[in-house]
Amino acid sequence: MRRIVVIGAGPAGMAAASAAALHGVDVVLIDAGAKLGGQYFRQDALAAGDRFTLPRNVEHVASAAVWAIEPVDGGHRVHLRIGPADGPDRRGRAVEARALVLATGAYDRALPFPGWDLPGVFTAGAAQALAKGQGVAVGDRVVVGGTGPFLLPVAASLIGAGARVVEVAEANAAVTGWLGNPVGALAGWSKGGELVRYAGTLARHRVPYRSRSAVIEAHGSDVVESVTVARLDALWNPVQGSERRLEADAVAVGFGFTPQLELALAARCRVEDGFVVVDAAQGTSAPGVFAAGELTGIGGADLAASEGAVAGAAAAKFVGAAVEPPVRAMARVRSGRRFAAALNAAYPVRSGWHDWLRDDTIVCRCEEITKRALYRAVDERDVGGVRSLKLVSGAGLGLCQGRVCGRNVAELAGVDGTGFAKRPIASPIRLAELAEEEPVETPIDAEESGRVLGVEY
Q1: Mind listing the pLDDT tens digit for each residue in 344-403?
Q2: For 182-220, how does the pLDDT look when each residue is reduced to its tens digit (9 = 90+)?
Q3: CB-based burial of residue 94 (10 Å sphere; 0-12 exposed, 13-18 middle, 19+ buried)?
Q4: What pTM did the predictor assign?
Q5: Cα(369)–Cα(446) distance, rounded to whole angstroms?
Q6: Which residue among 115, 178, 214, 268 has the highest number of C-beta atoms inside a 10 angstrom radius?
Q7: Pseudo-torsion of CA 426, 427, 429, 433, nearest 10°?
Q8: Domain 3-107+258-343+434-449's class?
């Protein structure tokens, strides 16, 4: 029996599942969401999950958290818990497959600043999800800040939900940033229409859009009441005397995205510069494991879907299906990566944000670790990596396990932040669930278990 497991049902995962299934391979598509679409499509509650159809040989396992991956003879065993985390009927399941496609996506990156722990400060993705998915604005007067084109649809969604967007503060020089890579910028020409629509929405509602600006402080006793916005120099250092105080009851901030690497690291995939390294067929350094989407680089939904199509076809070939190289999808991947490179070059995160922080600014919200405490721990102890950093400072030991603070704390401490995603249990489970015996589904028969199939495109 030929079967692959795809983890993540966003654009990359759905494309991978469809591509593999169309080549006659049985697919188990696992996702934490209740509906298809992932973070990208789930934000439109009226569309997500209802307009997507998958081939019949794809089993969609919804509301499922993958908490571990382990190697078995001839393949991989994926452990998952199905059902709400606090539900009494949550059950365990283990699925074995010859090949895996990891399409776990990414989450918002938020930079710390004084007051970022006040109620009323949201990530841009959370504000977008509430506005599009529930029709709920995070506030009446909202300041949107950070960097990247994602700020535009966030602002438009907030306007659509009835909020007044006071200002959009873009930390980079948005227009001139594209001039360094015109070829890559042209590769994303199809996005121009979206840009024009969002810009038109902001213009109609008279929303100021200011480049080289950032929210450097939020003020309020119990909730956000106002923010300080300052102009930035090229390295993101605040320009003295440029500070402005804006009344607001909510802030939505986003500084790009951080890939969810837990399962990729558990599968022993090689990671460089924070992303999974893949070849032309989306194959990772781990045999039989393929990756697609934001895991391999931040490039948007279209690129993720193209990578997923390539990964699904390659996984199908790995388990023995007759597959012709997906030439068109591979060409779209190459073009999409050129655009992604230009995008990342135009919207970098500069080190000047360190100067936004005061000594008493909290950098790890779960454990309430301040900048002063973090620096003291680093100065007084021998910190060689993430493990020692967590032990001496306490940062990253809380409920989020460094998912929110890890990348920023690592940058402040001068260590590689990838280690925050290294954990044998990828998502929280109860001790009773850990001890519970799981039914294991084994599609690998004895005849196939000793045969290894390579993939060459």
Answers
A1: 888 999 999 999 999 999 999 999 999 999 999 998 887 888 889 998 999 999 888 888
A2: 655 555 556 667 888 988 999 999 999 999 999 999 999
A3: middle
A4: 0.89
A5: 53
A6: 214
A7: -50
A8: alpha beta
